[in-house]
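To fix ideas, we reproduce below a protein record of this kind.
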Amino acid sequence: MSCKDSNRSAELPGTLSEGQHLDSIEVFIEAISQTLVSFENAVDKPEFTTIPDGSGARHFRYKSPGPRIIQYLLLVRIISGCRATLILLRQGHVAEAAVLLRTIDDFIGDFVLVEEALRSLTGPNAIQQKFFDNYFLESMDPTKQPVTRRQKVQAAEGRLLNPDNPCDVVVLSRKIDQLYDAAVHGDYSTAMDLYVSNSDGSDGRFEVMGVKSDGAITVHRLNLAFAVHRACAIALELSIGLRLRNACERLYRILRKINDEVDFTIPGAEQPSTS
């Protein structure tokens, strides 16, 4: 099936400042983070043990790692990453926030890849099994990952997060990747985004202490909002998988409130699907 961009009309955004939008997002990051205790109590506790890499170093590790622990650990990184991104955006560090948003997008995709494998009646496919085999290794060569894995992850995201119209998720995920790959690799445009000057071109400088313009923050704030929405959705999936009724009910309420209260409107462009 061909995934084409959907055309959606966007209403003009409200009068809230970017700081106020970030305040709204922060409330939901905190609410989702409070559910981690439920997941922590549902899986085995890590043990302080010697790492099997010959170094003799001791760290906390899981004795019997498995797919649900992978999902739990990915959720930890997602929530922590969202919180860190919010802090960076408050300070105007848009390029650095973009790098984190790219990694968060990968973590969400990996979570969905695991979820799809757990739901499959035939078990994990080759790419999913490779991911399981590599995740708990103490060191891994990223060049050995299948080049098609990211495309498979995006397809899995679409099927899980929006089964009625998976192409919406696939298209949006690809756009996010394209936008933030440039930031990860330090492309020319992302460095020049930090250059500001007066309207007449005078007093130009690179804002290495943080960009002050709300306009420079908007697109990253919107993608952070979408990441928090997706984080809540996959946390809900994990609570269902672990049969955590209280966490499930709480996360469902949080997800509904995110839909109702967070502004996902993209000025002058199409609006991301959060259904």
Observations:
- The beta strands are 47-50, 58-61, 195-196, 205-206.
- The CA atoms of residues 109 and 153 lie 5 Å apart.
